[in-house]
Amino acid sequence: MRVPSLAAISMSILASMALAAPTSNNLLTWDEAYAKAEALVAKMTLEDKVATVTGEGWEKTKCVGNTGAVEDPAFPSLCLEDGPLGVRFADNVTAGLSGITAAATFDRELLYKRGSYMGREFYLKGAHMALGPCVDIMRSPAGGRGWEGFGEDPYLQGVAGSETVKGIQDQNVLPLSTLLMSCFAPFKSSSNVDDRTLHEIYVWPYARMVEAGIGGVMCSYNQIDGTWACEDEYTMNTVLKQQLGFRGLVMTDWGAQMSGIPSALAGLDMTMPGDIVMGDGYSWWGPNLTKYVNDGDVPEDRVTDMATRITAAWYKMGQDKGFPETSIRAFDRDSAPEVIVDGNKEHAKIVREMGAAAAVLLTNDGILPLSDDLKKIAIVGSDAGPIPMGLNNCSDQACGAGTLAMGWGSGTADFPYLITPYDGIKSRAGDDVDIVHTYDDWDLDKATDISKDADVAIVFSNAASGEEYLEVDGNVGDRKNLTLWHNGDNLIQAVADANENTVVVIHAVGPVLMPWIDHPNIKAVVWPGLPGQESGNSLADVLFGDVNPSGRLPHTIAKNEEDYPAHIDPNFNVEYTEKLEVGYKHFDAHDIEPLFAFGHGLSYSKFEYSQLKINAHKKAKKGGVLATATVTVSNEGDRDGAEVPQAYIGFPESAGEPPKLLRGFEKVFIKKGKKAKVTFEFTEMDLSTFDPESQEWNVASGDFTVYVGASSRDIRQTGTFTL
Ligand SMILES: *[C@@H]1O[C@H](CO)[C@@H](O)[C@H](O)[C@H]1NC(C)=O
Ligand SMILES: *[C@@H]1O[C@H](CO)[C@@H](O)[C@H](O)[C@H]1NC(C)=O
Ligand SMILES: *[C@@H]1O[C@H](CO)[C@@H](O)[C@H](O)[C@H]1NC(C)=O
Ligand SMILES: *[C@@H]1O[C@H](CO)[C@@H](O)[C@H](O)[C@H]1NC(C)=O
């Protein structure tokens, strides 16, 4: 959701509350949940049902959105709260990795753990629905909200989205993802995308989340092929509810409803925050919906279906049993009861571990990990230091200064604290190492001065973006350009000119240009992304080799901005002309060399791939596994570490797909000198294409190629099979 800027940050402490752990994560099946929901809704009057499906108005409730409560039969006001990286507008919560950086772990287990700790925090705060994860595709790298999602590839988005959903739901909270493209499409524009691309790229992650049992999906602000998303029958009813068999609820993004009757008939189930214009107190639904039913414009069955979907999702998550009282006061932070959600600091530990697991080592001439006998380290750049405005002192993190640990907008949470890179490096290096620093990005003489006689100079820079209701340095959500901010290119050049052991660290929301990349003094480039509150600790873990890096790029870093297939489009009609060729698929199809490929990331160890074996099973049962590939990965280096073998599929030519598509990855930890066997299973869906005419997925037939490697451009083993 989006909101205008918000007022002061609350500092008050009220009574602390001890809360029990969620009672169970044995969620009901949809059938069980529907049986209870139908019985409940059968007792509701039309007005009760309308209250259940209509928000109570902007800034009028405890949470960023609340539905109306029903007394008899009792059904509570549901609390809906942002966002995809943690509980927004709340104190004492964890502000962890952004989606894009979580994706860079390429680690299912960690993605699940992140969903799970976030779910627990929403639960303990009494939020029924978490407005995340965001699984929209990073179509153009400058798109302001790309960092909230999991990158440029639908398969990766699908895995990350469904692991997050499972994690959140296992804590009895209902995750909600935005269908379709809200995180990326300009606020008021039309995303014009052909049906095959819609299914194969943009719907794919939602399909995987529906399989994971997701209970809610949001319709977005933009139009889809000329129809407002929240009244688009095709995406809401046909695709989501019929084709994917989604049984949960569709609700609006904040203020994205544009009509009362058409939206109801097209499959919308809940309006948020309820108003026509946010804060005006009027509604397309509420009393209007009752009237539409009484006038015969909307069948009462449709309203019954809306209420049933909402109450079923609530039963499915087990929220009818002892759900904590809502302690969020989104618009009156001072009055919020203090509820500590990470008393034993377990969540902070996950954030630190994940931050280290997500850091992508882009290049390394052997300078990393840093040696133990360094005497002097120079740290250069404002991105290494604190946020000068103070923590959480900019509206929704739109500071554009200090170290960057998340983007800006509604997808943010308040930092409980923020370990800066300087803090993290200093505490790990200890007192015996002399650490000199400057946070001045513009004083190149000073940067040169402090760098020139240091054993290592670590130079920091960043690039931020966010949601378009806030502007930072002329960036109205989207980035104006793909260059580094704050004089970054000149600063890096100056430090590299001064010190032959230069390490570059970049915190960025997405790809940046790197004109200095071939500078001979730049011995390593580290990409920690947006690591959240433990930023400096995670970075130090990797720089000093306490953790062997294993992060992988969830997006392509191009040599030139023009190399990307899609750019920010100021027109109302945004044509998805690249079709299936999103991200690396475009680079492959047009033989464009990226600077750093999708899936790239180095280790302090060295991994060899061998013995690719492929089996095709033509007679698999419906929906089953049609082919498996097994590869042996051995750690030939002198350190234990994790590798991320990736499996890409080349379809038969007749299928009309880009050269290769990610269809499997696994993060495997392998001790030095040991090896591991990794198996990829390719399901019917993995090997199918969508046929717009029949509206069906069909398994492609012919010769497939399996490419297994360490990135989309570092293929180590190749094999074929035929279906
Ligand atoms: C909870 O948050 C409040 C407001 O930011 C802060 O003053 C307090 O110290 C926090 N409590 C704990 C235990 O961190
Ligand atoms: C009903 O909807 C109309 C727009 O069709 C709006 O002008 C009116 O204010 C709404 N009524 C209420 C009570 O919200
Ligand atoms: C927040 O920023 C304002 C000015 O922008 C400053 O005066 C104030 O001291 C800051 N507050 C904190 C807590 O850092
Ligand atoms: C790109 O935008 C950033 C952030 O606004 C700005 O610092 C930088 O100077 C811009 N770069 C160019 C080449 O205009």
Automatic annotation (TrEMBL):
UniProt-listed Pfam families: Fn3-like, Glyco_hydro_3, Glyco_hydro_3_C
GO molecular function terms listed in the Swiss-Prot or TrEMBL record: beta-glucosidase activity
Pathway: Glycan metabolism; cellulose degradation
Source taxon at top rank: Eukaryota
Class of enzymatic activity (EC top level): hydrolase
E.C. number: 3.2.1.21
Reactions accelerated catalytically: Hydrolysis of terminal, non-reducing beta-D-glucosyl residues with release of beta-D-glucose
GO biological process, one term: cellulose catabolic process
InterPro entries, per the entry: Cellulose_deg_GH3, Fn3-like, GH, Glyco_hydro_3_AS, Glyco_hydro_3_C, Glyco_hydro_3_C_sf, Glyco_hydro_3_N, Glyco_hydro_3_N_sf
Keywords (A to Z) from UniProt: Carbohydrate metabolism, Cellulose degradation, Glycosidase, Hydrolase, Polysaccharide degradation, Signal
Domain Fibronectin type III-like: residue ranges: 643-712
Signal peptide: 1-20
SMART domains: Fn3_like
Family under the similarity heading: Belongs to the glycosyl hydrolase 3 family.
Matches recorded under PANTHER family: BETA-GLUCOSIDASE, BETA-GLUCOSIDASE F-RELATED
Protein name, entry field: beta-glucosidase
Organism, as annotated: Lichtheimia corymbifera JMRC:FSU:9682
